[in-house]
Write a structure and sequence with these properties.
Blueprint (H helix, E strand, L loop, with lengths): L7 E3 L19 H14 L3 E4 L2 E4 L11 E4 H14 L4 E4 L6 H11 L3 E5 L2 E6 L9 E6 L2 H14 L2 E6 L3 H11 L1 E3 L5 E3 L8 E7 L11 H10 L4 E7 L4 H13 L3 E4 L16 H14 L7 H8 L6
Parallel strand pairs: 1-2, 1-14, 2-5, 5-6, 6-9, 9-12, 12-13, 13-14
Antiparallel strand pairs: 3-4, 7-8, 10-11
Helix pairs in contact: 1-2, 1-8, 2-3, 3-4
């Protein structure tokens, strides 16, 4: 097999996946979060999936959504510290679960390389401790014309979309956007091809809790790989209450020549169930996995070239 250098993305926010993570309270300030990313970058991460500072809708809102609300100044301060230490680091603005107009406001301030959008729908129910902690919910559909607006803005602002694919239905959204045929609310057909630039960057999700959950199995992974659209690079994000199952799925992704996202947002534990002392430990575990099979780790420059990001001198 010809190995593709492994692009490791790190996501350092434990609030959704594991509210009992012992470092959860610590990782709520700008300085603590920025240091966590920079330590993980030193360990081998070349893309930072940043939630930043944010709050949540307490209940479903009149627009039918229950989503996250960014603190733009706090998030910008985190990214400023990351860029001060790693000027070429890929910044992937996370929180696909925010409203599109808030994404646009954030882009204008932080100028990320990438930004997340769920091509399926948010139907998430984070309940790692069902009898101890109230679940955190995210609910929103993402109609085709909303995706169109998002990709128009992304092209205008030079932001590459990170396409979150919770199941293979996301690939039909890719087809529709690539075809570029849309119908307006007043029944007018409009054509706008070219909103997605190849290669696409798709993240496959496994084990995320909720009614759109895809199981964390080899069959689920192979289903996504088999049905993937042409001209994409894919990464994977997993969640599980069982860290052994989690790391088995991560290992499958490494062996299938995919790219990997790890961190407290996804799973903060080692296979024996113990908590990682920091996100850098989780990044290093993936680095060691790859080294055992002879797969090289991508540099920041290699990652930017593979993903199709702008060159930074």
């Amino acid at each position: 097999m010809t190995w593709t250098p492994l692009i490791i993305t790190v996501t350092c926010d434990p609030a959704l996946q594991d509210p009992l993570n012992p470092r959860g309270e610590e990782l709520k300030t700008v300085d603590a979060i920025a240091k966590e990313y920079n330590d993980a970058n030193t360990a081998g991460a070349v893309m930072d999936h940043v939630h930043g500072i944010y709050s949540r809708d307490p209940v479903v809102q009149p627009d039918g959504r229950q989503l996250q609300i960014p603190d733009i100044d706090g998030t910008a301060a985190i990214i400023e510290q990351i860029r001060a230490k790693f000027p070429k680091m890929g910044i992937q603005q996370g929180l696909a679960s925010m409203r599109p107009e808030q994404k646009l406001q954030l882009w204008e301030v932080i100028k990320p390389d990438m930004s997340s959008l769920n091509l399926n729908s948010h139907d998430e129910y984070f309940d790692p401790y069902p009898t101890k902690v109230k679940p955190v919910c995210c609910y929103s559909v993402h109609p085709i014309n909303e995706l169109r607006q998002y990709f128009q803005w992304a092209k205008e602002h030079g932001v590459k979309p990170e396409l979150e694919c919770f199941d293979s239905g996301a690939f039909d959204a890719v087809r529709i956007i690539r075809d570029g045929i849309y119908w307006t609310d007043d029944d007018q057909m409009e054509e706008e091809p070219g909103l997605l630039e190849d290669p696409l960057w798709c993240t496959f999700f496994f084990g995320w809790p909720g009614q759109s959950c895809q199981p964390m199995t080899d069959l689920a992974l192979f289903n996504q790989i088999y049905h993937q659209p042409e001209n994409i690079n894919w990464s994977m994000s997993c969640m599980s209450r069982d860290p052994k199952t989690y790391w088995a799925q991560i290992n499958r992704g490494v062996l299938q020549n995919g790219h990997i996202r790890v961190g407290y947002e996804d799973c903060g534990r080692h296979p024996d169930g113990s908590y990682a002392t920091c996100n850098a430990d989780l990044v290093d575990r993936v680095v060691q996995m790859a080294k055992l099979v002879g797969r090289p780790i991508a540099t920041i420059e290699e990652a930017r070239e593979t993903i199709g990001l702008r060159t930074i001198s």
